[in-house]
Amino acid sequence: MKYVKTETVLDEIDWGNGRKFKCHSYWNDDTSFALDIGDGELTDKDDNPYFIHCEYNCDNGMWHHIFEIWFEDDDTCSIYDIPESDRNEYLSETEIEELRGIIYNLCKDKINL
User: Fold this and answer.
1) Which member of 28, 33, 53, 68 has the lowest number of beta carbons within 10 Å of its beta carbon?
2) Hey, where are the domains in the chain?
3) Could you name the domain of life of the organism this protein comes from (predicted)?
4) 45-79 pLDDT per residue, tens
5) Residues 96/51, Cβ–Cβ less than 8 Å
6) Nearest residue to 67 (alpha-carbon basis) of 105, 98, 44
7) DSSP code at position 103
8) Which of 30, 29, 31, 28 is nearest to 53 (CA)?
9) Could you give the angle at the alpha carbon of 76 between the alpha carbons of 74 and 82, nearest 5°?
């Protein structure tokens, strides 16, 4: 998986298996970086549209990741709230680890560790 900077407003995440999804990265504030992936492009096995929302937040001096699935009907859940047997439909552990690296590389110049 890799992050691809494009000439348009939205960049891409190349999943490396022929799948590429638009993504949008932004800072919510000085302590919260976000990356949204696949808005308008992803559907689950029940044809429910969703996108992947990732954050890298600082809480009391400690940086941590958040990975959520945001559904079109405004339902949101942490990837870890999805039963383990169904989680890979949205994000595998390998993909989560790769996204951690991409997120860190996108915001490392602006964070104070």
Assistant:
1) 28
2) 12-112
3) Bacteria
4) 999 999 999 999 988 888 899 999 999 887 899 99
5) no
6) 98
7) H
8) 28
9) 140
Largest CA distance in the chain: 42
Q: What is the DSSP string of 1-63?
A: -EEE--SSSSEEEE-SSS-EEEEEEEEEETTEEEEEEEEEEEE-TT--EEEEEEEEEEETTEE
**Contact yes or no for 8/22 (Cβ under 8 A):** no
Q: What is the pLDDT of residues 78-105, one digit of tens each?
A: 999 999 999 999 999 999 999 999 999 8
At which residue do the structure tokens 């994000």 appear?
Answer: 91
Say what the pTM is: 0.86
Q: Whole-angstrom Cα distance, residue 72 to residue 39?
A: 9
**SS3 of 101, please?**
helix
